Amino acid sequence: MHRVLSDVSFELARGEKIAVLGRNGAGKSTLVRLLGGVELPTSGTIERTMSLSWPVGLGGAVLPQLTGNDNIRFVARIYGKPIREIRDFVEDFAQLGHFLSEPVKTYSSGMTARLNFALSLAVDFDCYLIDEILAVGDQRFQRRSHEELFEKRSDRSMILISHISEILRDYCSRALVLYRGRGKVFDNIDLALEIYNSF
Amino acid sequence: MFRSFLKQINLQRRVIGALMIREIYNRFGREGLGFAWLIVEPLMFAIPVLLVWSFIRAKYEHGLLMISLAVTGYLPVLLFRHVCGTMIMFIRSNATVMYHRQVTLFDIFLARALLEIFANIMALISTITFFLILGDMRLPANLPMFYLGYFFTIWWSVSMALLVGALTERSKIVEKIWPVYSYTYMIFSGFFFLADWLPPKIRNVALYQPSLQAYEMIRAGMFGNAIKTYGDPAYTSFVLAILTILGLWAMREARKYVIIE
To answer: Would you state the pLDDT for residue A69?
Structure first.
């Protein structure tokens, strides 16, 4: 058996934002799946006391066979939100227009990511698990994402996975650096980025 | 305490409802018949086969109305095959939904199973109605017994589906063997025969099968005192309870090992 992650331990306070840094194959995706709850850890525990979003990334929680609108209804139903509220937000934020009535599998990866992001913002979580979504879309969309996530929701916790160091430096106070399946938390983001860049 | 329990139940109901709707869209799309396919599909399996039989086979077999025997045999087979068949590697194919943390594996399982059961019961009612109108069939003589037998068929199918769902995730062999089993199942499950027709030695062995037990009760319900049956609800409940616990355990184990992209 191949061990992907071991000895990874961290705690995230309400409102705190932590960066996750790691090269390809360091175990980031596994960490995301564990946090997202689709995979279970072989040993150890994950304790969630805040509502934690699904991984907001390129694929994530949208259902490819369903249309955008059906995804909206599905999410509204299982999170017990009014469908109308979710739809209004998604229509405005994701700017998918008539594509909302098409199956998601016909979307480009950028469009899927936009829908995924919009749905997660519409549900409104305490903590967001952001997986490489900050580089999606055009400038206008990026500005809106930034506004929704970091300005309107500045009181939320976040686990940020991104290759854009500026964003991590601006918003995260701490970083979890993954290297060959091991993880270490640094309380100084600059130091963490420096170490990450030296790998 | 009671409040939070009610809240939990309510959440579960909502989740399973949403999953059922998703399942219907996934399987039948949104155009054309859509939802109606759910009922039409099993009917398309049942009616043609049974209709052909009603032409080529004698009206009575062992003194029993052949169509009554065939309908009470074929629809439980369909239920078993469909409920189990739909669970083959269902964990893998449902990974994305589990990113929504309030959706459990059990909800997905239940949503799928309930859809199949609903479809099958609708098909059962339609088929019986169809042959009642043709005059090839009579209503069950002992309805409570008939219901009990069908209840055991459902329980048996669901508990096997838990095992099929879990084991196909873990082993390629089970996945290959399953179609063979589900095909030969038609022969030994009790579809074609009553336990009473078997030689006593074989009968005693055959009656270990929960499927035959359920069939015996269904037939007792259908034909009443006209036949001798061997259904034992206590034994069947006992075996199915064990099978269900095994299935739930296997499912929980399988969940740990499934690799999701």
So the answer is: 93
Question: Which of A37, A52, A70 has its CB closest to that of B25?
Answer: A70
Interface confidence (ipTM) of the complex: 0.83
Q: Which residue has the higher pLDDT, B232 or A163?
A: B232
Closest by CA to B109, choosing from B87, B141, B80, B132, is: B87
Distance CA A153, CA B22 (A): 31
Range of the domain at A101: 57-124
Domain assignment present for residue B17? The answer is no
Output the pTM of the full model: 0.88
Does any domain span residue B158? yes
Q: Residue B162 above 70 pLDDT?
A: yes
Residues A105 and A199 in one domain: no
Q: Which of A52, A67, A78, A129 to mutate to test the interface with B (most CBs of B within 10 A)?
A: A78
**Structural tokens at position A197:** 């860049």
The token pair that represents B20 in the structure block: 């059922």
Structure tokens that stand for A191 in this block: 């130091």
Over residues A175-197, mean pLDDT: 88
Inter-chain touch B22–A74, beta carbons under 8 Å: yes
Subunit contact B256:A40, Cβ cutoff 8 A: yes
Q: Looking at the complex, does the CB of residue B105 fall below 8 Å from at least one CB of chain A?
A: no
Do A66 and B96 count as a contact with CB atoms less than 8 A apart? no
User: Is residue B153 predicted with pLDDT exceeding 70?
Assistant: yes
N residues, chain A:
199
Number of domains in chain A: 2
